[in-house]
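[Meeting: bench + compute handoff]

Bench side (C.D.) handed over the final construct sequence. Compute side (W.E.) agreed to return the predicted structure before the next meeting so the bench team could plan truncations. Sequence as handed over:
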Amino acid sequence: MKVLLLGATGNLGSRLLPALLAHKHQVVVYVRNERKLQEVVGPSVTSRLTLVTGDATDATAIQEALVTHRCDALVNSAGLAAVLPWQAPRMQGIISAISTAAVKASKELRYPIRAWFLGGLVAMDVPGTNGTMIMRYLPLLTEHGLSFDCLRRTPREHLEWSLFCPSEMRPASASITLLETPRGNPLIASVDVPAGWQPSRLASIPIIGTYLSIFGNAMAYATDLEDCADFIAVDLAKPNRDFVGHRVSVKALGKGKAE
């Protein structure tokens, strides 16, 4: 696929570059600061990219990039969500601009745009609660709920979106280097509820049981940034239609169990 990547200088975005290239995608990077990109990933990576300069809140420029380069897909890892619920949203201008641009580009190109957006584990539903998000019990990064609402309002015939909802992502390596072959990943995935959620005996405790179950499970969802990047690159190479229009959780095989 030809993929438009936003947020390429960030922790996940910079690792998406070698992952996408290793899976034989053509990568168009939409970046605000080309010099910073060079500093983060180096010329060995940037020499294999098509660079477009622009702001992630500029819907017109993003649409032009998608159409001009006839992109099949986009990945957005730009922006940082507000951590506390009383803080002003930080990402909604970006999510709105990208989704608007993708819909208009799709109409112009006459095919749907496949898209991955970055959310967080708190936007997933707690299993067995009939659709209650984790953020209802753990009110951090609640802006991801606004991102989900925005994407749900987007016509899926034009934007085939997925909201990637990991927990903490940690670097396996501090350096960003080209890969001769895909690194692979040990991640399992699930839509709308956390992957590999372990039933907890604590959940039966009145009032506080669900909270204890969530805290007991949450620690097992840390992943490597490189694994998450490979997961997205794999899906764009071999699309899983079950992910379209859903929140997607991942978990590394072998991570701990709840009590």
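W.E. noted at the follow-up: The helical segments are 11-22, 34-41, 43-46, 59-68, 92-109, 143-152, 209-218, 225-237. C.D. will use this when planning the next construct.
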